[in-house]
Amino acid sequence: MIKFSEEKLKEVQAIMARYPEGKQKSALIPVLHIAQEEFGGWLQIPVMDYVAELLSIKPIEVYEVATFYTMFNLKPVGKYVLEVCQTGPCMLNGSDEIIDYIKEKLNIQAGETTADGLFTLKPAECLGACGYAPMMQLGKTYSEFLTKEKVDSIIDELRAAAKN
Ligand code: FES
After folding, report:
1. Closest to 49 (Cα-Cα) out of 1, 121, 15
2. What pLDDT, in 10s, does the model give residues 106-119?
3. How many angstroms does the Cα of residue 131 sit away from the middle of ligand 1?
4. 130, 141, 142, 143: which to mutate for ligand 1, most atoms within 8 A of CB?
5. Which of 56, 101, 113, 156 lies deepest, with the highest CB count within 10 Å?
6. Is residue 1 in some structural domain?
């Protein structure tokens, strides 16, 4: 059964309490982030339905938001999601080459996850760090001024971290 842990539920309730009665929908994005983190890194339909129930809104209102923003995953992803920005400024600074390099290195295509379940490559649109192009988001951190060497060391570090 899909249910937030006691601790996460308190977090969700605190976010909902920021908004006046009847306006709980305003809490949707932060609550979806918590849900994604809590329920395996992606938003399956029962999770979105559960969020809708908590916020007293229709499931379709949750689906609309979850399918609009690329930060929400609608299918299972790896432990680490490499969200490489591919919008103009990043593209002009080599994001296509970085994406191709990651595909080759990890032997996956965009949107796919490595067989060991560690990495998902997810090209993204502008992540608001154009001055640091090319860049990617990795969880809550940004990796900037990417080069192939930088990608190598990031992936090595993540592989090592996953073993611990
Ligand atoms: S274009 Fe890549 S962060 Fe804006």
Report:
1. 1
2. 999 999 999 999 99
3. 8
4. 130
5. 113
6. no
**Tokens read off for 137:** 């988001």
Same domain, 35 and 60: yes
pLDDT digits (tens, 9 = 90+) for 43-77: 999 999 999 999 999 999 999 999 999 889 999 99
CATH of the domain at 60: 1.10.10
Q: Which two tokens stand for residue 22?
A: 């009847």
Residue-number span of the structural domain to which 56 is assigned: 6-68
Spatial separation of the C-alpha atoms in residues 145 and 33, rounded to whole Å:
27
How far is Cα 6 from Cα 10, in angstroms, rounded to an integer?
A: 6
Pocket of ligand 1 (CB under 6 A): 85, 87-90, 126-130, 133, 135
The amino acid occupying position 141 is T
pTM given for the model: 0.86
